[in-house]
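Async update (no meeting this week)

Hi team, since we skipped the sync, here's where things stand on the single-chain job. The sequence we agreed to prioritize is pasted below, unchanged from the tracker. I ran it this morning and attached the output directly underneath so nobody has to dig for it. Comments welcome in thread, and please keep replies under the output.
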Amino acid sequence: MHKKASRWSAEIALQIQFYDLDPMEIVWHGNYIKYMEQARCALLDSIAYNYSEMKESGYAWPVIDLHLRYVHPATFGQCITVRASVVEWENRLKIDYLITDRASGQRLTKGTTTQVAVAIATREMCFASPAVLFQKLGIAAP
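Output:
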């Protein structure tokens, strides 16, 4: 499936804390996932479809795939921006992430997550995104 230009994005700003560092005094690789989750929640809030609204709509959206590419390490005290953008929505919810240094704009990390709809009542995976996602994105369902 091809990527589409995103109309739906959100950014958060964070300052790297000491407790996120590894013994090499850079951000431990697993913490980038936490930063991406925070940006994803901001994005989902912006379309009024965060996890509580998903549950109310009858669907869970588990992450089934995650990719990260580390370019430059983040360090203690550094201010970063984490941007999350919806890039696919028809059969899955794919979100791209870009983590940059807030002062210079230097790319630090990029990644993607893929989520699929699962009907909570039956625990069955949906092979197409449910109409509620299209409604929240403000577009017509196929």
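Quick observations from my side:
Residues 72 and 108 are 5 Å apart (CA to CA).
Confidence is low (pLDDT under 50) at residues 1-5.
Reply here if anything looks off.
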